[in-house]
Amino acid sequence: MKPIEVRPLFRPFISAWSIFLLAGNALGAGPPLPIISKVQVMYSMVGHHSHIADRVAFFNTNGSPLGNANYVVPHLVYEPLVTLYNPHNTTLTMAKSRVRISNPPVGFRFKKNGDYLRSEWAAGQFFGLGRFQIANENNSTATKTITMILGGGTSSSYSGQIVLQPGESKTFAARVETNWTWGLETVNGFSSRCFFDWDASSDFTNKDYRTSNLFGIECIPQLNFRAGFQTDALSVGSGRPAVTKYPFESSPAGSNWVAIKTTDTVTVEAKGVDTTAAIPSVPDFQLSLLKGIVTNPTADLSKKYDFSFANLVQPVTDVPATPAITRTYGVSSILQTSSDASAGGKSPFAVFTIVAKSEALQHGKFLSSPQPASSVLYETRLDSITYFTEGMTIGPSDRPAEGVAMTAMQRVGNSFIIDVAAEPGLSLKVKGSANLNGGFHDDLTSLSTIREGPENSGIYKVTVDVTGRGARYFVRIEK
Predict the structure, then answer these.
(1) From CA 234, how far away is CA 241, in angstroms rounded?
(2) What is d(CA 90, CA 164) in angstroms, rounded to the nearest whole number?
(3) How far apart (Å, rounded) are the C-alpha atoms in residues 331 and 118?
(4) Cis amide prior to 280 (ω within 30 degrees)
(5) Which residues on neighbouring strands pair with residue 101, listed in sequence order?
(6) Rounded Cα–Cα distance for residues 301 and 100 (Å)
(7) Bridging pattern class, strands 35-48 and 347-356
(8) Among 18, 236, 244, 297, which one is most buried in terms of CB atoms within 10 A?
(9) DSSP per residue, 321-361
(10) Per-residue confidence band for 82, with pLDDT thresholds at 50, 70 and 90
(11) DSSP-derived secondary structure letter, 152
(12) Which of 298, 272, 294, 295 is nearest to 285 (CA)?
């Protein structure tokens, strides 16, 4: 249902309250589909001890100091999150939804003890996620896609139906098994379980091998940051700078993976880059809503949003001379051991976000036909973070800063449903009156369901029980 803008009696975001006359429908008909209100990829660093037998043996017998426990292999972690929002005045129940991110516009480079692990990085280059797998480490046209299946994708899926109440939003993340540990992930050596994304042919970010789900990685409305897609390919198989090797290492020991003494450091630098610059025919990056009917993404397409790298908002950088989000870690501080059932030392440092603009949500632009340009609907940004929760709270920059404005309304039986725009995090109050001259003495707050939409978007949906209030009744929303 496409809402139309209803002019409030007071100027939006100036008044601390706004009034609507309870009347008939002000919403038109439309397909009951959710809106992708936010998609994120959260980036972290984590470290593990080597688990491949010959590598363990090498450090046990040749290391200085001896012992595999004295060395940590740093990994780059990338975790997708997607938030669905129900803008409609009816409950949405779906068997599944499918979302795909193509080519997140973020590049990386790494140092061991202050020395870049690839010569290209010392020359100023940054590489996108597609370059951090053995098969593509020298492939300038390597791309990266992440496909998420929300809800039940197969008969053996762990996810159930998606249910969104009017105005409700839910954030989905990759399902992490309750017994997941790094030891479980790597128990079969080179054949990883789900998240160790070193092998491009496994296509882990687009298929869930735990349940043979070819629609994508199974995602549920539960956040668990213990695991996450990750790669250890932080260097290069051949041509690794000699300065980045210990004296006891000789080629090919520690090739594109890097083992670092627990007393030494690893540095990550991240910045926005156009990862598809070598492929002019491909959008800089893209967000797609898929139908979930067939596994082929092209044949399964419902909606797509193409984005330009030029519109990416980047933070004030940590290193002005070399613009990049920069973190240096003692590798022992990011260690997650094979039996650790927690996130261990896993440390987030950046998050890429595609977030729906508040103004576009307020005025139903996502339900418009033809579809507006992606830049009208979404803003895209890269932010520096230190905590997982810090990244989760990112909202649109155009969210309301003050006041209360009602943007649409609909009467459904004895319910009066109002869309409200106001600064995030308010405890709204609902007052009513049959006569404006008599003041608003009826406190309807306890008779109302007030649901705040996507976090920090400044969008609310208020459902008021107006049983017995008559055909003409005034409702005021206060902060």
Answers:
(1) 12
(2) 9
(3) 19
(4) no
(5) 146, 287
(6) 10
(7) antiparallel
(8) 18
(9) TS-SEEEEEEGGGGB--TT--S-TT-EEEEEEEEEE-HHHH
(10) very high
(11) -
(12) 272
Q: Quote the pLDDT of residue 318.
A: 58
Give per-residue pLDDT as tens, 369-408. 899 999 999 999 999 999 999 999 999 999 999 889 999 9
- 264: tokens are 């030494």
Distance CA 204, CA 220 (A): 17
- Tell me the HSE value of 98 on the side-chain side, using a 13 A CA sphere: 25
The confidence score (pLDDT) of residue 152 equals 67
Distances (CA, A) of 212 to 190, 294, 443: 19, 14, 54
For residue 124 the two structure tokens come to 């100023």
Asked whether residue 26 carries a pLDDT value surpassing 60, the answer given is: no
pLDDT category of residue 27 using cuts at 50, 70 and 90? very low
pLDDT in tens, 424-475: 999 999 999 988 888 899 999 999 999 999 999 999 999 999 999 887 889 9
DSSP symbols for 355-385: EE-HHHHHTTGGG-SSPPPHHHHEEEEEEE-
Task: Confirm whether pTM is higher than 0.70.
Answer: yes
For 194-221, letters b (16+ CB in 10 Å) and e give bbbbbbbebebbbbbeebebbbbbbbbb
Residue 215: predicted pLDDT: 93
Whole-angstrom distance, CA of residue 353 vs CA of residue 313: 10
Q: What is the Cα–Cα distance from 450 to 448, expressed in whole angstroms?
A: 6
164 backbone dihedrals φ, ψ, rounded to 5°: -125, 120
Cα gap 327→348, rounded to integer Å: 10
Helix (H) or strand (E) holding 61: helix 53-62
Angle at 323 between CA 378 and CA 269, to 5 degrees: 90
Strand order in the sheet with 415-422: 404-412, 415-422, 459-465, 448-452
- The torsion region of residue 7 among left (phi > 0), alpha (psi -120 to 50) and beta comes to beta
| pLDDT (tens digit per residue) in 335-359 | 999 999 999 999 999 999 999 999 9
CA dist 339 and 347 (Å) reads 18
List alpha helices for 367-435, DSSP H.
374-377, 388-392
